Structure prediction request, 486 residues.
Amino acid sequence: MFTSINERIAVIGVYACGVFLPKKMNWNRQEYRIDEITMKIDSKKSGLLTRIYSVRSGTQIFRLEFDRLQETWTLLEVWCE
Amino acid sequence: MHVDMNSYFATLLQQETPYLRGKPVVVVKDIGRTCVIACSKEAKRIGVKTGMSLADAKKRTQNLYVVPVNFPMFLDCTKKLYKMWKELAPNPEIFSMDEVFLDMNTIPTRVKYKSEKELGFFIQQNVKRTLGEWVTCNVGIGPTRLLAKILGEISEKGSVCSILWTDRLPLLADVLFVDVCGVGRALAKKLACFGVYTPLQIPFLGKETLISYFGSFWAEELLKISNGEDPSFLQRILAEPKERSVGRTTTGFSLCSDRQEILRVFFALCCEVMKKSRALHLYGRTVFFFMMGRTQSAHHRITCTSAITSTKTLFEFAQQWVQSLHAIFPVIRWGVYLSNTQKDLPPSLFPSQDEKHEQIERVLDQLQSKYGSRVLRYAIDFSPTLPDEEVTGFFGEKRIHLQDV
Prediction:
């Protein structure tokens, strides 16, 4: 079950063939290496396209949102058993 | 060629959350809801079925994972799939959100394949590349849509199967009606009374018996099925579907007895109905409202002399009706329908108040389509508990086709 977090986070990544791939994220003063992007969703929120990345870091799964207007990253949810 | 995604909704959720992979997963509309709307391959294996109650599903296994639906994800993935089908064959026939028929004769020559099966594997690889490694699909290749679909249904998950026209009889002799598209449970039961369990047994009943017991339409359809030909519902409908009415229903999260709140929900529904009506250029004269509670229900139908063109007018009917009710019962489900429709009203020289409202609403539609449905709306519509714009149907997966057109 995903649990809501909604916190601003820092994300670093690379552009590969014009596609952004998040590689690491910093949350709660801890660095998480992103091992796999399990899903990438484009959705429209109040007219703005937002991109939601579901990523796996070790055994943890996060939902990250990139706001194109503010250019900020938000940790939306974390998977908790 | 028929492509069918395996346990589409549940598989997408498993793709998103690797923890769920290989585990029995059921999808519900929201936490607290009790109807299983989709289930994973693993859940199907232990007897869980779509439409089952959650309590029944939990009886099958204690380790059942209940996950709420993620409509934006399904919509985005379906759009990606649709784009992929379009690139592969210019005229894909979308049969449902997770099923498509592709005409192999229209596949461009740049897609190189040595055999039909190789093309099937290529499609499976494309699906994996587009949606993720965990997402699988069945590919059935046949001379008719019916045979391709039957093959897809009965073959192992994630496989590619093909059949020739000359080999159809053994397949039709083996397949049960549960795997034959178009033959429902009631029809299969009726056929079983005659000792008919597979399509190949149908002709033995004789055309006259079929007509007398199933009617001329079904007699024709059953005979086509028995020969492996496409029944009429699997043939491509070339004519544009003709819309006759527009409507919208919603189910709340809890029972609501507040008259103002009930009216607010009706207003949101009226807005959506009129938005659909404007998009389809369809204007109705008869309006039907209903609301349902736990045991009670109420409805109201009214036919106007002229077509309803603005949300304000439509809502006024709902308002008059709700306010005329002496006692309000706790409501969980609402609905608004507009029927008795006509296409494109002739423009009038002196626009009425209603027509002026419609013009404003058309501008509002354009703004909402550009900046989002919640960015600019009526003051009455401002409530956090109001239903979201529908994600399936006209504003959901069908919008893909509309945008494409």
In short: Chain B has 13 helices and twelve strands. Chain B touches chain A at residues 12, 15-19, 31, 67, 72-73, 75-77, 132, 370-372, 374-375 (CB under 8 Å). Residues 259-280 of chain B form the longest helix (22 residues).
